[in-house]
Amino acid sequence: MKTVTGLFDNYDDASDAVGELEASGVPHDDISIVSSNADNQHDNDGSKVADDAAGGAGLGAAIGGAGGLLAGLGLMAIPGVGPVVAAGWLAATAVGAVGGAVVGGAAGGIVGALTDSGVPEHDAHVYAEGVRRGGTLVTAKVDDQLVPEAERIFGQANSVNLQERRGEYQADGWTGFDPDAENYRSNEIGRDSARDVNRV
Predict the structure, then answer these.
(1) What 3-state class would DSSP assign to 19?
(2) Cβ of 120: how many Cβ atoms within 10 Å?
(3) Domains of the chain: which residue ranges?
(4) Are 94 and 78 in contact (CB under 8 A)?
(5) What confidence tier does 75 reach under pLDDT thresholds 50, 70, 90?
(6) Is 86 exposed, middle or buried (0-12, 13-18, 19+ CB in 10 A)?
(7) pTM value?
C-alpha cells in the first residue's frame, strides 16, 4: 500500500475527490479527510452542524455526503491545526481517539500521523500548514494497482501543487509547521483559496 495525499483550497473539490476515490475502489476506511473549520463555515452553513456535533451525531449529508466516509464527519480539534471537520484514520491518529471520544494528542499530531503513514516530513509540514490556513486534506491508503488512478483523481480535482505552495509559504517567511503557533484569526483563514489554483 502507498499513501496518496492531496491538499485542496476548496472543501467541495476535496469532497469530490473523496467520492471519486471511493468510486474507484478505495475503501472508505482507507480514506481520511480533514478540513479547517477555523472560520466556522461548517457551523454557519444552515445545516445544524453545531447541534449535531454537540449531540455526538455525524455530520453526514449536511456537509457533503450521504454515505461512505463523508457520512462520518465530526467536529474536533487537532493540536496545532485548530478546529476541523474530519473523518477517517488520519483524523483519529492525529487527535487520538478512545471509544469514539476525542481525547487530545501530541503536539504536531497531524505531521506525525502523516509521516507514520509514509508521507515525507517536509511534505507533511506543508499539508498541515495548508489545513491550518483554511484548506482541506484528503489522504488515502491505496493498493499499489490503484495508485495511478488515485494520483489521477488528485491531479484532476483542483488539488494544490505542493511544491509551488511550499515556495509561496517560504516566500512569506514560513519555515515549517509550528504546532505551538497561535491559531490564525478568522480574517487570515482562507488566504490560500484566494491564490490561483495550482494543479499537481
Answers:
(1) helix
(2) 10
(3) 2-194
(4) yes
(5) confident
(6) buried
(7) 0.75
